[in-house]
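FORM 7B: Structural annotation worksheet

SECTION A. Query
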Amino acid sequence: MAKGRKNGCPVSVADWLIYIQDKSQLEETWVRIYGLTSMTRTTDGETEDSSADTDIWSEPYITKRSGTIDLEGIKKVVESTGEIDRGQELLDDYAEQAGCGADATIKLIDPYGHGIIIDTIVTSAEESADSSEQTRSWSLEQVGEAETIPYVQMEGVELRKGDTKIDTLEMISGGAQEIVSVVFTPEGASNKRYRVNNSKRAVMRVSDIGENGFVLTPVGVGTALVTVTTVNNGCRHQIRVDVKTEQEDGE
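SECTION B. Predicted structure
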């Protein structure tokens, strides 16, 4: 949980990454759950061996801890297929099972890349609808103590067009957009959040900023510097974008 959060208080999941393990696959496969609007997580102070009642109890020694996770969201449908989001579908599947069949493994990663893996039982799934949207909710019971995922520091970042690293880019005013990929070192860095700075918005527009890159749209003649800076360790990569008229480009 983020610092300052009280036990059991709702948190915004907009900047969290929440995954569920797809145990139907032979290899370990994590599926991100999209469409979530809130998460509430509680952790019980008591443990199965009553260690919380002893005089020598302290947080690092807690074992067999239990608790609950409540997830809420809107029904997320994949536009290209019309199917329900795979993550939501897996939650529904586990909720329909009984006993060991409802045992789901969840991975929570906070906005700064700190993650835990939790074994849970999906106890229920509910769906309701109003005039605008369908809402969904799931209740999960934690089984045992959460496993902390080792934190991997960011060491570098670079911008690429396709598979090629770029430091400069030429574009035509009013012309085609360019998709720029953001590549991190190491690939498994825990916190892949980054900021994009655009020095000349009258020349260049940055949009569709996602986990793996963004889109550049030339809107005026001139030069813009586009800089990516990682939140963890402040790694930077800057590209110079020269936007010309079509006539200048042909000269």
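SECTION C. Observations
Residues 1-10, 48-63 have pLDDT under 50 and may be disordered. The chain has two domains: 17-149, 156-250.

SECTION D. Sign-off
Analyst initials: ____
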